[in-house]
Amino acid sequence: MTDERPRPEYGEYATPQEQAEIIARSLPPVPPVLRPRDVDGAVAPVVPPAAQTPHAPHLPAPHRPAALLPGVGADRDGASPPGRRRWDHLVSLLLMTWGTLTVIAGFFQYSDIPAVLTQVYAQQGIGAYVGTGFATSAGLIINVSNVLILVATVYLTARRLRARKLAFWVPLVGGAVAGAITGVLLISLIVSDPTFQAYLTTRA
How far apart are alpha carbons 85 and 83 in whole angstroms? Predict the structure, then answer.
């Protein structure tokens, strides 16, 4: 039996299923991101980490200590980090070396103060140094005080250097104290000398 109906041009005689298949083939392909999740091969949308765990507690960022500024680099105790203030080590070593040599040289010099003052008087044209018994005692006091101050200075300086603290000022203070003691004793010997008193009277 032949179908006498005219040939269809737009699928008038197709079944609904055939029409749906034709329409589906004529449409452009659907992108994977728009396909439903239950379709095989579907790609799940990318979810930000924050959205995946909306109820996760907020953890603070780890604390990072601030970098030390150049020239500061010290804590509340005056300590400096390793590798800093190498100049302090060098200056402290030089000052302690100079102080040690000064004490050694002065030990022989102040052991005979009358001879030293006699030489000074001769150079200045003051006269002959008379001297008293206190001159020998003053020399002993000067030598003992210089040695004790030197030992204390070396100990304190080394201790501060090991603790990475500023130390160059310790030898300076020690030298100032030793110089003050020596100057006071020498001035007292000269002022109390009769020859020096007569020289001042003549000059006046």
Answer: 7
